[in-house]
Amino acid sequence: QPPVRHLGVTAPISLSLPTERDKAITISLMEELRHQGIFETEEETRLREHVLGRLAGLVKQFVEKVSLMRGLSATAAKQAGGKIFTFGSYRLGVHGPGTDIDTVCVVPKHVSREDFFDIFEPMLREFEGASEVSGVPEAFVPIIKAKINGVELDLLMARLALSQIGDDLTLQDDNLLKNLDERCIRSIGGTRVTDEMLRLVPDVVVFRDALRCIKLWAKRRAIYSNVMGFLGGVAWAMLVARICQLYPKGNAGVVISRFFTIMYRWSWPQPVMLKQIEEGPLQVRVWNPKLYPSDRAHRMPIITPAYPAMCSTHNVTESTHKVMTDEFRKAAEIVDQVMVDKAQWSQLFAKHDFFHKYRYYLQITASSGDADTQIKWSGTVESRLRQLVMKLEFVESLILAHPFTKGFEQVYFVTDEAELNAASSGEIWDSFKKRTAKDIEGEEGGRAVFTTTFYIGLSIEPKPVGATGPRRLDISYPTAEFAKLVKMWEHFQATQMGIVVRHIKSSALPDYVFDEGERHPKPPLKRPK
Ligand code: 3AT
Ligand code: MN
Ligand code: MN
C-alpha cells in the first residue's frame, strides 16, 4: 500500500499556508467568538475535569462491587476495571458554558445492563454532589441523566465481551463490536465517531475553532436541528472536518472562508465522507445507495467515519435542503465581504428572520393538562413534524414548507370550555393571557393548559399572470393526515392530549416568537363575542 499522503477521500485543494490576511481574519474571528460568550471559564473547565475524574472512580467502584457479587476474588474484582469515554461537544472540545458532558461507561462482560440501572444508578444517587439523577432504561439508547457538582451528564453504558476493562482500552477496533448487544453498539457509536473524526482532521485546533464558528452560525440561523430535518452537531462537525482535510495547512479563517462556498456548490447527493466506507465484522447495513433505495433517497448525505458507516442526515427534506442551501449562499456573501474588510464577523451570526420571512405559517399546537405529559407528548409531535413537512412538499403550488427548529412552550390558566379550546388551538385570548395559577384557585372549571407550539413557514407560488380569484391552497389533507399520525402514538390519550394545526397569516403570529422590540405592537386578540 502507498503511504498515506493526505487525509480524506480526495487530495487536498490547497497546501498553502495562511496569508497575512488569513491570519488577521482568524484573529478577528476568534475575538468575535469570545465576544459572543461561547467559551466557558477556566474554572468551569477545571470543574468538568474534576467531575469526570470522580465519575471514573465511581464507575470502577461499581464494577468492583458487581464483580464481588458475581463471586470474583477481591483481586480479580479490582482488576475488572471499568472506564469512561466522552463524546458529543465536550469530546470534540467545542462545548459552551453549561452544556452537558456526554459519557459512556464501559464495563466488562460480567456486568450487565440491569446492573447499570439497579446498582450504578442508586450509587450515583448517593454520590456526593449528585442531583437530578434519572434513568431511562427502556430508551432506544438507554441513558441515565444526572448532575454532579452542577455539571450536567448524559450517561450511557456499554458492556464489552472482555473480562477486564483496562485504563489503556480504546474503542477503535471494529472487532470489539462482535457479539455485543445492539444497545451497547449504539452506546459506543458516539465515541467511535468523534474519536475517528479527530484522527481524520489535519489539525485539531483549527478544526475546533472553525467548528465553533459554524455551530454558532447554524444555531443563530435556526438550521441546527437533526429532528427538524436540518443538521445536528455530528453532521456539522463532519462538514467542517471535510473542509479541514481539503485545506490541511489552513487556519480557522481559511476553513471558514472556503466552507460556505464549497457547501453551497456541493453536488448533492454526492456524499460528504471523511474516509472510504469500510466493511466490518457485523451483519449490519452500512450506508450504500447503490444497494439500498432508502439510502438513495438521502438528499444531503453526510456519512459517519466509524464502522458501521451511517448517514447522519436522513431527516433532510426538500424544503430543509433548500433552506440550508440558501443560508450557505448568504453566509458565503458575508464572509467574502469580511475578507475584504467590508463586513464584520458579527454579521455572520445575525439572528434568523424566520418570523418575518413568510406571509403564511402553519401553527402546530400540542397541549395537555400537566407538565410531565406535556414533555412526552410535545416530544412525540416534534419528532414527527418532518412527516408533515414532507406531506406539505407534495402540495401543488407550495414551494417550501420551512419548519422552525424549536417549539414554544406556554402555560395558560383557563376557566371554561371555550377558553380551553382556544388555548389548545394556539390562540391567546386577552381573557386568559395574563391569568396565573392563583387566579383560578377554587374556580369551578379552572385548569392549566400546557402548550407547545411549532411553526412551519409556507412559501406559496405566485398566482399565474391574469388569474382571478384567490389561489387555492389545499392543505387540509396533509394536516389531517398528520394529526392522525401523531395520534397513533402508543401512549396517546384523546382525553388528555390535544393536537391542532392552524393556518395563520404572519400578522397573527403571537408576541412570544419575537424578541423585545423586534416587531411593532399590534392590537391584541379579543375574545370573540
Ligand atoms: P451540546 O453542546 O451538548 O449542546 P452535543 O453535540 O454534545 O451539543 P448532545 O449532547 O445533544 O449534543 O448529543 C451528543 C450526541 O449524543 C449526539 C448524538 O449522537 C447523541 N444523541 C443526542 N440525543 C440523542 C438521543 N435522543 N438519542 C440517542 N442519541 C442521542
Ligand atoms: Mn452534549
Ligand atoms: Mn447530551
UniProtKB/TrEMBL annotation:
Keywords: ATP-binding, Magnesium, Manganese, Membrane, Metal-binding, mRNA processing, Nucleotide-binding, Nucleus, RNA-binding, Transferase, Transmembrane, Transmembrane helix. Its cofactor is Mn(2+); Mg(2+). Residues 353-522 form the Poly(A) polymerase RNA-binding domain. Its main location: nucleus. It catalyses: RNA(n) + ATP = RNA(n)-3'-adenine ribonucleotide + diphosphate. InterPro entries: NT_sf, NuclTrfase_I-like_C, PolA_pol_cen_dom, PolA_pol_NTPase, PolA_pol_RNA-bd_dom, PolyA_polymerase. It is found in: Nucleus. ATP binds at F87, G88, S89, D100, I101, D102, D154, K215, Y224, G233, V234. GO terms for molecular function: ATP binding; metal ion binding; poly(A) RNA polymerase activity; RNA binding. This is Poly(A) polymerase. The lineage of its organism: Eukaryota, Fungi, Dikarya, Basidiomycota, Agaricomycotina.
